[in-house]
Design a protein that fits this description.
This protein is an alpha/beta fold. The protein has two domains: 4-179, Rossmann fold; 184-370, Dehydroquinate synthase-like, alpha domain. The chain contains 13 helices and ten strands.
Length: 371
């Protein structure tokens, strides 16, 4: 896949191998002189943080690095990043990593520019003041956070997920560099990949779908279906940059499809599970996705066929190739918690956009099927 640069809405998209080396130049184009780089320890060890800092230094952009992000970031991580941002008097924010790092970067941007707590921004377009220009650099083909204005942040006290979105929070520049993916461990590749696939599937049939979102979800599925088959069987070290180029672009398109539509019951069911158990978001979504496809088939069948004939079977095949978990039982989830989790799933914002209406009763059916 050839490298390219384009504009999509308010975002400048840079796609191509070694494009991280342009980070300093691209930050400068946004007026940056002092940046906060939000990332995690694993990416420091992989050498990606040093590459990013070198590019920023070459462009004379001072950089403070917050590398404390963990999976499923909470208000604590945002507060830690915010403290460093305030101390460093930044004028730009960079999210380098998976969805956790990019979501945390957005969270810091909310509080640095608008004050208050993350709880104040749960919902849509609640920030009143302008936000800092920001850059998103995904190192996994997964969440699509680089294409969305929302950050998913957990409350530190109970882990409850808050979706905080604002059009001002969307990354002004997105760097899609396939060379960054080679360091991802196989488990992360599988979990993030199935999450991206779920984004393509659920956004394509959500009640808020539209011709624009469907264009993105269809192309996302095409790229991810082909690419995931290869990364799942070869692993990151054995997969060529062409495949990772397809996967990164597919994940970005899937995230963009969400931005223009919404998700559904698979994500609604996943959030209560990851709040209660040490299960990655991607693994959780992957457990429920085939069952949600089957549940929705009577309502969304023809739209599923636009993606793939026998979509449920294809998703199961992809999961098997990647060795992804197939049931709640594999995680020793107590069966007597299913009703409680179904009640929580009914309150998730994505449940409202499932093509077949769901209440606690229907969601419990999905949990039971996934058990």
């Amino acid at each position: 896949m050839e490298s390219f640069e384009t504009l999509l809405g308010p975002s400048r998209i840079i796609h191509g191998a070694q494009s991280l080396d342009r980070l300093g130049e691209l930050a400068r184009d946004l007026g940056a002189t002092r940046a906060l780089l939000v990332t995690d320890h694993g990416l420091r060890e992989a050498g990606h943080v040093d590459r990013a800092c070198a590019a920023l230094r070459e462009a004379a952009v001072e950089t403070a690095v917050y590398q404390g992000v963990e999976s499923d970031p909470t208000t604590r991580h945002v507060a830690e990043g915010l403290a460093l941002a305030q101390e460093s008097r930044i004028d730009c924010i960079i999210g380098l990593g998976g969805g956790s790092a990019m979501d945390c970067a957005k969270g810091v941007n909310f509080l640095f520019t608008n004050g208050g707590r993350m709880e104040d921004y749960e919902g849509s377009n609640l920030a009143r003041e302008p936000m800092l220009p920001s850059l998103g650099v995904p190192t996994t083909a997964g969440t699509g956070s680089e294409g969305q204005s929302y950050a998913l942040i957990g409350r530190e006290e109970d882990g409850a997920k808050m979706a905080c979105g604002d059009r001002k929070a969307i990354f002004r520049t997105v760097i899609l560099d396939p060379s960054l993916c080679a360091s991802a461990p196989p488990a992360a590749v599988a979990a993030s990949g199935i999450d991206a696939i779920a984004h393509a599937v659920e956004s394509h049939v959500s009640t808020r779908r539209n011709p624009v979102s469907c264009l993105f979800s269809l192309e996302a599925w095409r790229l991810l279906d082909a690419g995931f088959s290869r990364v799942a069987t070869q692993g990151p070290a054995g997969t060529d940059l062409e495949t990772w180029s397809e996967m990164l672009l597919g994940a970005f398109f899937a995230g963009t499809a969400i931005e223009h539509s919404m998700l559904g019951a698979a994500h609604a069911c996943a959030n209560p599970l990851t709040t209660r158990f040490p299960i990655s978001h991607g693994d959780a979504v992957g457990i429920f996705l085939p069952h949600v496809i089957r549940f929705n088939a009577a309502t969304a069948g023809s739209r599923y066929d636009e993606l793939c004939h026998s979509l449920e079977d294809r998703v199961r095949e992809l999961k098997a190739l990647a060795g992804l978990p197939d049931s709640l039982r594999e995680y020793e989830v107590p069966r007597d918690l299913l009703t409680e989790m179904a009640t929580e799933a009914e309150r998730q914002w994505t449940a409202d956009f499932n093509p077949r209406p769901v209440t606690r009763t229907e969601l419990l059916e999905i949990y039971e099927a996934a058990y």
